[in-house]
Design a protein that fits this description.
The complex is a heterodimer. Chain A is mainly alpha-helical. Chain A contains 14 helices and four strands. A two-stranded antiparallel sheet of chain A has the order 1-4. Chain A has a two-stranded antiparallel sheet with strand order 2-3. Chain B has three domains: 35 residues; 191 residues, Rossmann fold; 149 residues, Response regulator (Rossmann fold), CATH 3.40.50.2300. In chain B, the strands form two sheets. In chain B, strands 5, 6, 7, 8, 9, 10, 11 and 12 form an eight-stranded mixed beta sheet that branches. Chain B has a four-stranded parallel beta sheet with strand order 2-1-3-4, sandwiched between helices. In chain B, helix 3 crosses helix 13, helix 4 runs parallel beside helix 5 and helix 6 packs parallel to helix 8. The N terminus of chain B is likely disordered. Classes of the chains: A mainly alpha, B alpha/beta.
Chain lengths: 346, 399
């Protein structure tokens, strides 16, 4: 049982990691992330990289939707902007990959600032529809500009460090996971600052926020910019990971995927972004293992069970929404609370 | 992982190295022996769910059936074929995950991929791996490049070649005809258009109009009016499965158009064409394989399929079946030559195929000098008989 945490200053009270136990677990998690590539097969490494990219993008969307209350269905388009920026810089000029990824984030951020302008007049579903336009415009540009390679897209050479190409899941893991961790740390810290608190105030009641002296124009656009910056970085990592970028790589369904991830994970929490992205990416894969355990899984059986698996995944999402509308992050918090208070009842 | 292991190996001492070498030496004959008897694995990223499931289910059954035929006959030089499919829902990231899962758990020699996007994405990995020969559901012209895609091939003509076959037929049937292209605004739809326009001109045909529609569009009345004004003798649809082809045909006929309507492979399954209804009578298209019910010539392999599965099997099934047949032939030729089953050897064996008899699945002997089988035939819909009937002989557009 955890009896209490003594805090003697405001700085300690606002600290990101506030107890020795928490730091211990984080250390263990970090050690696991370092050791994981040496223990896992190529398949699990691939999934780890994919999860990390999705976590980065979901965290960005959570800043906008979960923390600022602005619904967006343009996250995939912003990822596309980041991915194409990286692809163009890498194929045309061969600039350093970290610079390319950063440029991907900046270009997506600029796109986000433009798309965010309607957020000053419209909210909720209306804003979501306005952001869908971003997906269509981006798709049109990707498919029709010569610099983007038209419908065939662009093949991206691998990122390389001192002549070593990051062309395997093992190697690129060391790029994707650290970048995602930095992004998550940045997002977590953001909500300890005035900017983050302003976002939350806008989400809770934008008129009140304005009365409190928060300029809505600046902060709503800032939220859009930050969110799409995250998407752009995730898109850049995506480009180096898959190494082919086409207009069909970033469909509208992908934006819905990220929205579902933060809803399932928990809106307005960084942990929710992580858990949601892990859930949405990993559960369909893990269900394959579960279904493989069923007896007589021949080829015809596989054809029969595959749609059933999809239905089960859908039911799991619906189940979470009904039984825990605050998402997986809340489930996690309850589990933590149980252990904090154990052996007493909460 | 490899780089880590490499650096570790470099740092170990000479004695350890000798011990390791001795250990490898001792285990090597056993490994070679194991390889001689081990299964030949066909992996598959198969879309059993999602928008392409209508084809994926057939492809899966086609591959599984041919694998069964080969194994029942004793395998390839005593080695059994083992087919390991995974559902992909027709998503590239899931397809890659399926590839990684299957290749992590099995020593894969041959692989079936479900889309152009997957074929392009996995190509660097295939090159790096060097042990796998891949084919798939894509007929993208871009993949028909042995230099860029040395370990892949197409089971049929690429999309440009498919339209080329239709154009050859048109040029023979009505020299100097006007041909319109209607295609979707996708990579799939745009694929053959530029090259086909040039090919039409070479054949003395004119292309008065090209119409691009959004994918999945339903209201095409404006486009039909444009098409009617151009008054083409033939209209070739590409980049669709079905919609909006029925809308084009019905509205075009109502407006008095006399154009003949044509499609490419993914529109041409019998069950798809029959959905056009009465308006689709006479609809033509290119098909690289004989239909399940085509008994116009001797086809022992089709007889075998009909015996195994008495109900109609789609053209996607036939494509999967033929893919497994070509995989088997490549593996057989490689083993006959006493070579290991590597990507290079399998591809070289595949390219050595000349005048190969597919058992009547393709009605003419095939050769595979490059990445495609540039042969096909024009079939026409007979709505009364509810069947596709041959409208041309087999046409080769090989260079």
């Amino acid at each position: 049982m955890r009896i209490g945490t003594l805090k003697e200053s405001y700085v300690a009270d606002a600290a990101l990691f506030d107890s020795a136990t928490q730091k211990l677990w984080l250390g263990a998690g970090a050690a696991l992330l370092v050791l994981f590539p040496f223990m896992a097969s190529d398949y699990w490494l691939y999934l780890a990289c994919l999860v990390a990219i999705n976590v980065a993008s979901a965290a960005g969307l959570n800043i906008l939707t979960g923390y600022t209350g602005l619904v967006s269905l343009g996250q995939a388009a912003f990822m596309g902007l980041g991915a194409y920026t990286v692809a163009i810089l890498q194929t045309r000029w061969g600039t350093p990959f970290l610079l390319n990824i950063l440029a991907g984030g900046v270009v997506a951020m600029l796109g986000g600032l433009v798309v965010g302008i309607p957020s000053l007049r419209v909210k909720g579903l209306y804003l979501a529809i306005a952001t869908i336009a971003a997906s269509f415009i981006a798709h049109f540009l990707f498919a029709n500009l010569s610099i983007t390679g038209g419908t065939g897209g662009l093949a991206v050479p691998p990122a390389s460090v001192m002549g070593v190409a990051l062309d395997t899941s093992f190697r690129i893991y060391w790029l994707i996971v650290p970048v995602t961790l930095v992004l998550l740390l940045g997002a977590a810290n953001l909500f300890r600052t005035r900017i983050g608190r302003a976002f939350i105030a806008i989400r809770d009641r934008d008129i009140s926020a304005e009365v409190l002296g928060i300029p809505l124009l600046r902060y709503k656009l800032l939220s859009f910019g930050l969110s799409s910056f995250y998407a752009g970085i995730a898109g850049g990592l995506w480009a180096y990971f898959f190494r082919v970028v086409t207009p069909e790589s970033f469909p509208l369904q992908m934006s819905i995927f990220f929205l579902a991830a933060i809803i399932v994970g928990g809106m307005g929490t960084i942990l929710g972004s992580i858990l949601g992205a892990v859930f949405m990416t990993m559960v369909p894969e893990l269900l394959k293992f579960v279904f493989d355990l069923l007896p007589s899984t021949g080829h015809d059986m596989k054809v029969f069970l595959s749609p059933v698996r999809t239905v089960v995944f859908g039911l799991l999402i619906v189940g979470f929404l009904i039984f825990e509308p605050h998402g997986l992050a809340e489930v996690w918090r309850r589990i933590r609370r149980f252990f904090h208070l154990w052996p007493f009842r909460n | 992982m490899q780089s880590f292991q490499l650096s570790k190996t470099v740092s170990i001492g000479r004695r350890s190295l000798m011990i390791a070498a001795a250990a490898v030496g001792m285990t090597l004959p056993a490994a070679v022996h194991a390889q001689a008897g081990e299964d030949i694995v066909i992996g598959g990223s198969i879309p059993m769910t999602g928008v392409f499931a209508f084809a994926g289910v057939g492809i899966n059954a086609g591959i599984a059936d041919y694998v069964k035929i080969v194994n029942d006959a004793g395998g390839i030089k005593g080695r059994k074929l083992r087919y390991v499919p995974e559902d992909t829902a027709y998503k590239v990231d899931v397809s890659v995950a399926a590839y990684k899962k299957i290749t992590s758990q099995n020593k894969v020699n041959l692989y079936y991929g479900d889309s152009t996007g997957f074929a392009k994405t996995i190509n660097p990995e295939l090159e790096r791996n060097g042990q796998i020969l891949m084919a798939g559901a894509s007929f993208a012209t871009e993949l028909n490049d042995p230099k860029k895609y040395p370990h892949q091939f197409l089971v049929g003509p690429d999309y440009s070649e498919q339209v080329g076959i239709l154009l050859r037929h048109i040029a023979k049937e009505k020299p100097g005809a006007k041909v319109a292209f209607v295609y979707s605004d996708t990579e799939f739809g745009r694929d053959p258009i530029e090259t086909s326009e040039a090919a039409a001109k070479k054949l003395g045909l004119s292309v008065p109009i090209k119409i691009m529609t959004p994918p999945g569009s339903v209201d095409v009345s404006t486009e039909v009016i444009k098409l009617r004004r151009a008054a083409p003798d033939y209209t070739i649809f590409h980049g669709y499965i079905l919609a909006p082809i029925p809308e084009f045909i019905q509205q075009g006929k109502q407006m008095g158009m006399t154009s003949k309507w044509m499609g490419t492979f993914w529109t041409m399954d019998s069950s798809t064409v029959m959905k056009l209804g009465e308006a689709g009578d006479g609809f033509m298209g290119v098909m690289p394989f004989r239909y399940y019910y085509d008994t116009s010539a001797k086809a022992p392999m089709l007889d075998k399929i009909r015996a195994m599965r008495p109900e109609y099997q789609s053209t996607a099934y036939t494509q999967g079946f033929l893919t497994a047949m070509l995989f088997t032939e490549a593996a057989k030729r490689t083993l006959d030559a006493g070579k290991p089953l590597t990507g290079d050897n399998l591809k070289a064996a595949l390219n050595s195929i000349k005048d190969f008899d597919t058992g009547g699945i393709i009605g003419t002997p095939i050769s595979m000098p490059g990445n495609s089988i540039p042969v096909g035939r024009v079939y026409r819909a007979d709505m009364k008989a509810q069947r596709m009937v041959p409208a041309s002989d087999w046409i080769s557009v090989g260079k």
